[in-house]
Amino acid sequence: MNNDLLTISRYLFEPKDIVEFRCIRGRDVVKRWTTADEMTKLANELTVLNSNGYNIYYGVNPRKESSMSGDANVQMARCLFCDFDHIEPGDGCGMFEFVYTDLFLAGLPEPALAVHSGHGIHIYWRLTEPVYDLSLWRSMQSQLNERLGADKTIKNPERIMRLPGFLNVKRMPHQDCFICWGVPHA
Fold first, then answer.
1. pTM to 2 decimals?
2. Which of 43, 47, 164, 184 is the most exposed place for a label (fewest CB within 10 A)?
3. CATH number for position 7
4. Cα separation of 93 and 21, whole Å?
């Protein structure tokens, strides 16, 4: 079983949330949808796709229904998240420690999850209550990205992020994508 996949399903979603997966190799895209409590059943298929050169992504915000993509299919937001690419840690610190220092200095709460994406760090905060007003959520995302100097494009409701537990095959050498920090929500 893919433990990172299980952790994502438990930390960022509720059991019946619909999760979209996108496996991308160039212009070829394979999409799958499942509930969060069934995510691990896709592990074998995702592993095969990854070994055939597909990068594996998932939609962080739960979808309204299966078989449909786009912002209009996003039900709500349970998280805020940032993408930090091209981090150059120093003084023996790893990439997560470098980002964590910035979070601490910004006075932000501890994240629920941090993922080493292969070429950067993704940070997730689980919200106390879901946000159904996706315009408000987009504004919150933009403010967070601005405050932390994170990737400013990470603000659309249907945003997909790299799924840990698989290889980042975007460029050589391929890199492991894995969870490097996790605190489950209450």
1. 0.91
2. 184
3. 3.30.70.1790
4. 32
Q: Which of 17, 32, 33, 30 is nearest to 77 (CA)?
A: 17
Q: What is the dihedral of CA 34, 5, 130, 140, to 10 degrees?
A: -120
Is the Cα torsion angle 131, 141, 87, 50 positive or negative in sign?
positive
Which residues make beta-bridge pairs with 161? 58
80 lies in which domain range? 3-182
In single-letter form, the type of residue at position 4 comes to D
Helix and strand element counts for the chain (H, E): 4, 10
pLDDT, one tens digit per residue, over 104-122 is: 778 888 888 989 888 888 9
Overall domain count for the chain: 1
Prior bond to 89 cis, omega within 30? Answer: no
Positive or negative, the CA dihedral 7, 119, 150, 63 is negative
pLDDT in tens, 40-82: 999 999 999 999 999 999 999 999 999 899 999 999 999 999 9
Angstrom distances, CA of residue 53 to CA of 26, 135, 167: 9, 35, 9
Tokens of 166: 């698989």
